[in-house]
Amino acid sequence: MHGFxxxxxxxxxxxxxxxxxxRLKAPFPPFVxxxxxxxxxxxxxPEIQLDPALVLALFVAPVLLDAAFDSSLRDLKRNxxxxxxxxxxxxxxxxxxxxxxxxxxxxxxxWAAAVALGAIVAPPDAAAATAVLRIIPAPFRVRNILxxxxxxxxxxxxxxxxxxxxxxLAAMPQGxxxxxxxxxxxxxxxxFGFAAAWVQTRVMSLLKEAPPAIILQFIGGFGVxxxxxxxxxxxxVTIVVFALTAARLAARxxxxxxxxxxxxxxxxxxxxxxxxxxxxxxxIGPIWRDLEPVQRExxxxxxxxxxxxxxxxxxxxxMSYGAAVRVKNRLLGVNLxxxxxxxxxxxxxxxxxAGMRGVVSLAAAYxxxxxxPERDLILLAxxxxxxxxxxxxxxxxGPLIKAVGLGDDxxxxxxxxxxxxxxxxxxxxxxxxxxxxxxxxxxxxYRERQAALKLAGEGDGRVVMPVDELAERVLEAKxxxxxxxxxxxxxxxxxxxxxxxxxxxxxxxxxxVVR
Length: 515
What we know:
Layout: H1 2-24, H2 29-40, H3 52-69, H4 73-78, H5 80-105, H6 111-121, H7 126-135, H8 140-168, H9 176-204, H10 210-230, H11 235-249, H12 255-290, H13 293-332, H14 345-353, H15 359-366, H16 375-403, H17 411-431, H18 437-454, H19 466-487, H20 493-510
């Protein structure tokens, strides 16, 4: 019960911190990191232990699935080169640099364990950067690169992590077995991800109610991860392919399932991020308290050195890559997606500073076996890297974007406007040629909206018609009358909730969604 009470306290603190972040117009992830650090030093903090083998599936699978589901294959293809260099080269350089630093500071640390540490702290978590970019808009391509990087740097880093941990524990395959294992982990993961998404989508099409459909989504997410691990595949690659495929196959799923599913997944991801920081924070407290003063200084210096290497390597790589691309563009010309601007020094600064680590690094550190060499030191270093990057970079990324003058380029707004125009045309075409009264009313309404859209000027084309404002007032009057009938005993609560749900659906249709 003590542990459950602690979870409730931390979750309540997270809600309060979300309000603080909202009031300050600041990103939420840095505040979650601070809550996790606070949990480490709670005087009544309980001992909470989870099976290390469970942690990656519990925390990483749903978070990564949610991010991959919202990703755009088109934009991933258009930005494949910078995403590949960040996901492969930058991660590889970071792993090597951290491994050499760790080995130099702690000579007794095995090389494989040092590489595992490098793999744990190498992948940035673009969810934090995305949280900042929702508050302070940046060029669409920068956002796509950061989000695409987060999907694939986890895959490359955790593949290295997997083999490094196996090598440390003397369970590493050798020779052709190693090559075959890597090939199976990559090719098999892609095939299994496609197949699992197809099967789940077929089953989902048979469900007409949200609760069982949402439960099936979670069973699919966790089940695909666990099955991939059991088959020796890359669970990260599998879950990314699974989510990308499912998002395309499920595009025509009914709104009655899709709308509540979005809300449930957003809530679950929020809670898992908070719990991950709390869980690792609760491990850090006892580790820190059991250290002697001299050991605390050594551990702190080690953690700060790893943090500095992670930040420095990313800045050096991104700025060097940007300079090389600009030279290439001057000599050979520019080949970019439509409307996108070529990389500049300003965009390079933003991308290089958006290297916040997050829940993947925390979960990977916690998932290390208890017998892993210098596990406590590694756990403390990872927590320091995540805390340092989230708090320092997370809270200063927004001011940096403003300082370099890197604003919204209008590409996303233009595409949204284009989509609004297209669906308005589709609506008019559907009722064209009909002379019945409903068709005439709809045709007149959509032609009015189409005309207002053309006069809206720049932006995403969102317009509020007089009929929309009137509909809001009518809806409010309906709600007041319905509530009065319930309070006066004219109708039962069952009747009240039925009509309330219908009014809620109407309100959601009137309320613009901002992402």
